[in-house]
Design brief:
The chain is of the alpha/beta class. It has one domain: 3-Layer(aba) Sandwich (Rossmann fold). The chain has helices at residues 12-25, 45-50, 67-81, 100-113, 130-147; strands at residues 2-7, 34-39, 53-61, 64-65, 88-95, 116-117, 122-125. Helix 4 (100-113) links the parallel strand 5 (88-95) and strand 6. The protein is globular, with a radius of gyration of 14 Å. The termini are close together. The relative contact order is 0.24.
Length: 149
């Protein structure tokens, strides 16, 4: 099974969250799941099609998802539309102000694709706390564990 982390990580706060998600998804107790990580600007449609589950990470820029993550979906949306229904996903998002618009956008995209939310979204404002990073770790581990055979 393959778990694809598609992320846009332009800041130290986003980086800390990404590393925690990756650590959770890569936990040694989770067996049979290959974790692949790709920046949103370079992920290919083929990589998205080949994944069995997804972790999505983005900052909330001006109340919306990053242009990089939007680009990843724009280039692959129609190819993914009927081919990836029912696949699990998780979302972690960092914003210094409101994150509602970014959450609404990603909920709309993933709902349109027919993906299944595997865990609560992790939404962080400001510097991630220890609890925030633990929530990111749990998000990664939860989505990866759902892919174990």
């Amino acid at each position: 099974m393959r778990l694809l982390i598609v992320h846009h990580t332009p800041s130290p706060h986003c980086q800390a969250m990404f590393e925690a998600v990756l650590a959770g998804a890569s936990d040694p107790d989770i067996e049979g799941v290959e974790v692949i990580r790709r920046p949103a600007l370079t992920v290919s449609t083929a990589e998205m099609l080949a994944a069995d589950g997804y972790l999505l990470g983005t900052p909330a820029n001006l109340g919306y998802i990053s242009g990089a993550l939007k680009h990843a979906f724009d280039q692959s949306y129609y190819q993914l539309l009927d081919s990836t229904r029912g696949r699990p996903f998780g979302l972690y998002l960092h914003g210094n102000e409101g994150t509602e618009g970014a959450v609404r956008a990603l909920d709309g995209i993933t709902r349109g694709l027919g993906w299944c939310q595997a865990a609560d979204h992790v939404l962080v404002s400001g510097k991630p706390t220890k609890d925030d990073l633990e929530a990111c770790w749990n998000l990664g581990a939860t989505v990866a564990a759902q892919l174990m055979q």
